[in-house]
Every structure is written in C-alpha cells, then in structure tokens.
Amino acid sequence: MESTCGDVNHLNKHACACVLAATIISAIFGYVTTVMAGALLFIKEELEISDMQVQLLAGILNACALPACMIAGRLSDYIGRRYTIMLSSIFFFLGSILMGYGSSFPILMIGRCIAGFGVGFALIIVSVYSAEISSPSYRGFLTSLPDLSINIGFLLGYLSNYFLGKLSLRLGWRIMLAIPSIPSIGLVILMLQLVESPRWLVMQGRLGDAKKVLLLISNSKQEAEQRMKEIKNAVGIDENCTQNIVHVSKKTRSGGGALKEMFYKPSPHVYRILIAAIGVHIFQNICGVEGIFLYSPRIFGRMGITDKGTLLLATVGIGISQTLFTLLSCFLLDKIGRRILLLVSSGGVIFSMLGLCVCSAIVENSKLGEEPLWAIIFTIIVIYIMAGFNAIGIGAVTWVYSTEIFPLRLRAQGLGVCVIMNRITNVAVVTSFISIYKTITLGGTFFLFVGTNVLGWWFYYSFLPETKGRSLEDMETIFGKNSNSEVQMKYGSNNA
C-alpha cells in the first residue's frame, strides 16, 4: 500500500502497530522479572531454600542474559530483527514451562537461566526494531513503548503475585511462573505478519523491500524517499541508486568490524557515543531502584508489615506508579527532550532515597512490634513516589537514548555492549542487596544509593547532549562536535 500524502508529524498507524506488537516481548520480560518477587516468598516456604539461594534465583536471570547479550546484536545483524524477536519468545516459552513445572530448586534455576537468554535478546532487539521503524518526530514516543510495556509486565507480575498467591502453596507460584508461555507462542506467530526493519533491509542490499516497508511506515511518499536517502548514505550506497537489489559487502551485511570500530582507536564522536550509552545503562542499575523493587516484599516486611497478602498488595502500588509515569514519559520525550527528563528523574530519586533513609532508620531503631505507623505508611508512599520518578526518566529514557545515538553500522552491537553492562550492574545489585542491608542496615543501604544517584545526575548533566527531533542518521553530527557544551548550546536550548 503506497501512501502519497500525509503529514510527517502525524503518528503512522502501521509503524505504531509494528512497535506495539514487538513490545509484547518486553511485557513478558517485565512479568518474568517481577513475578519472582512474590513467588520467592512461596518458593522459600515450600522448597525451604536459604537466603543465598533466594539471591541466586533472583539474580541468575540477568546473569544468564549476559551471554545472550554478547551474541544478540551480531545475530540480529545477520538474521534480521524480526527473527531475533521470535528467538527471544521461544526462550521465554521454554523457560516458563520449566519454571512452572518447578519440582526442585535446580529445575527452577535451569528454567530461570533459559528465560535469562530470552531477556538478553529482548532487551536489545525490541529497542533496535522500534527505533529503526520510527520516524524522527515520533521516535521518542515509539521507542519508549518497550519500556512502558516492561512496566505493564511489572504490574501484571505484581497482580499475579497478589491474586494467585491466594491459591494453594503448591499450585499458586507455579502458575505465576508458567503464564508467560502463552503470550510467547502468540508473539512468534504474530511476528511472521510484521515488516522487517527497513534499515536492516538496506544493510542487506534489499533496497526494493526496504522502500516498500518505508512507504508503509511513512506518512507520505516524500517522507519515505527522504528516509531512504538518509539510510543509503549511512550504509554507503549511492542515494541515487534505483536498483531493487544491490551488492553490499559481507562485513556490512553481518555487522562485521563493529566492535573493533568501537573499542580499537574509536573516532572522537564514536567514543563520546559509547561513553554516553554505556553510562546511562550503568547508572540505571546502580541507582538501586530495581533492587528495591525486587525485594520490596522483604523491605515492607522489615518495616513492620507481616501479612503476606498485605505485602503483595503493597507491591501492586509500585507497578501502578511505574506504569502511569512511564506512560507520561512516552508523551513528554518528544516534547521536552531526553536530557531534561533524566535530570528531573534522577533528582526525584535522590530526594526519595533520602526520605527512605530517614524512615527506615526510625523503624529499625524501634522495638519489634512497636514500629510507628506513620513511618510505615510514609515509607510505602515514598517508594511509590520513587517508582514514579524513576519511570519518567531513568527507566524510559535510558533505552530510548542509548538506542538512537549509535550509527546504523554499530547500533545492534553497540546496544548489546550497553545491555551487557546493564545486566552486570543489575546482577551486582540484585545478588548483593540482602547481604548489604544485613551488614549496614536498610537505612545505610538507601544512603549508599543516594550517593550513586548524585553521581548519575552529574553524569547526565555533563555528558548527554539533547537528541530530540534529530534523525538517527544525524547522531554522529551531534556527537562529533568539539564539546558537549557546544552541542547543548546549539540543540539543547532549542529542544528543551
């Protein structure tokens, strides 16, 4: 279907539908991550596992995502974005079936490991696919949908904990863990009906197929032709070439040499891009928010809430707050920009953490059973506020920003490097959280995270130029300036 007219500032329905379908895998990832928070309460009781085994079961998902991250970017350059999403779905299906069977701790660990491979693929490929399908005017919105989908998955995980937790001890948590197998198979079938990334098609020399896709996901023929020219230039194909199929080197088709370009004497602008992209992923995790969310039932328990039903209900509020503020972020990204949202988000998390420091110190210094009710209520409210501040910037913008700033030839593998760092820091936080708060108390742990968030705010302010409204092919120009201050003066003030 060829579109010959339309407003370039209008959200293309076909592009939106493709991104929405692909983000199902993000919802599965969010659900698989969060449902374990409540399931661990029941697993620990039935299987009688230790706190160390609890930490291993919580952290192994992201530990196993690391090897998948190492190959997902290169694989998606080789087989395409669609088939990589399908492969991720298959991993989630197999992992969920095994965890649902869950007859012993080793079986749970194997299932969680397999699901971890799905996480590694999902975290990279959905963001890449969304960015490459989107037009510049709505790229922030569409590329933030995977994060919104993750948070919807978080909320569904919390709701599953609460409602299925009322079933028998043997049945409830197993159903919780098996549920993702259903949408995983559905997504495999759905992806067969969706278009491939036009940028990947151009990398393969399939210009005719890429043009057909661009006509579907653009609002006018003129917009499609302009995007096609920019992609051709990025790949190194003459923009006046009219052939349907052209020869491109094997290195271009498979993404060969991308890692060497990034790490062996990178050009100044590639170096700046790499620092910015890796930095936002590291600070997303060492801010400590995900560790707090994963162990929120334990934190609420330490605050004086002992009933399991009440604990799980309290966690639902976290999912609601994250989802609502991520949705708000989707609409703000293309209006006020990425950099401002990160600064506001980081500042809000800092003050929320300070509030948690005070409340937890008061509760922990109270006698058992005599914890002040106001401090317990305030702790819950502050965690909800922190979830909102985290979602509006650190959660959503990290994936949008790191995906869009890499050049096409480096994008999939560059994001793979970022996700590796993301998962390493995530595993470090998740697997050490219980040990840290047992050593320095919850208040001390929250104060530690205040420090990491202050560093994060400084990093966002100092190293990230604004990218709102710029085409993917224009990012090297933005980061190729002599300094970030020049970029911010030229683009930041106009886009703020």
TrEMBL record:
Query: Which part of the chain is the Major facilitator superfamily (MFS) profile domain?
Result: 18-468
Topological type in the membrane:
Multi-pass membrane protein
Q: Name one GO molecular function term.
A: symporter activity
InterPro entries given in the database record: MFS_dom (IPR020846), MFS_sugar_transport-like (IPR005828), MFS_trans_sf (IPR036259), Myo-inositol_Transporter (IPR050814), Sugar/inositol_transpt (IPR003663), Sugar_transporter_CS (IPR005829)
Cellular localisation? Membrane
Name a single GO cellular component. Answer: membrane
Q: Which PROSITE patterns match?
A: MFS (PS50850), SUGAR_TRANSPORT_1 (PS00216), SUGAR_TRANSPORT_2 (PS00217)
Record field: transmembrane: 19-43, 55-76, 83-101, 107-129, 141-159, 171-195, 270-295, 311-333, 340-363, 375-402, 414-434, 440-461
Question: Chief location of this protein?
Answer: membrane
The entry's keywords: Membrane, Sugar transport, Symport, Transmembrane, Transmembrane helix, Transport
Family per UniProt?
Belongs to the major facilitator superfamily. Sugar transporter (TC 2.A.1.1) family.
Q: Mind telling me what this protein is named?
A: Polyol/monosaccharide transporter 1
Q: Which organism is it from?
A: Medicago truncatula (Barrel medic)
Q: Which gene encodes it?
A: 11405967
